[in-house]
């Protein structure tokens, strides 16, 4: 298994949330958030277009060079990378959890794989970042994705965005 290394970078803001009120936490790292056994990030996802497909969180080193880099390359270079997938629940709130190796700064990316092909499809799939800024048509900026993880569990909200409009760009569904 690859050695895990935490990296640092510039800050971005994330929306802090109150403690979960009995909401189910999804993903293979759910126990870390439920037991408050961090370092981890609990992500409440809002703005989902529908209840199809699956959900994915990816945690990267918070550097320009490493953000959204292929996971095989990161692991081959001995850098940290973590991915959590979850089936889309039929109803209710959507909360995911992802563990970090240590407290620190990381880059977080959310995707809604609506077509089930496990590869991001710009025409159908959704995406989101901790800053909740409009994604536009270009690759997201690192500053939009950086989140600081404490020793415990960091709670944030990410609003899913989908391609929309006559001149296609990403934005929240239905707006």
From TrEMBL:
Keyword Signal: yes
This protein's UniProt keywords: Signal
Family annotation (InterPro entries): DUF2141
Domain of life of the organism encoding this protein: Bacteria
Signal peptide positions (record): 1-23
Name of protein: DUF2141 domain-containing protein
Lineage summary: Bacteria, Pseudomonadati, Pseudomonadota, Alphaproteobacteria, Sphingomonadales
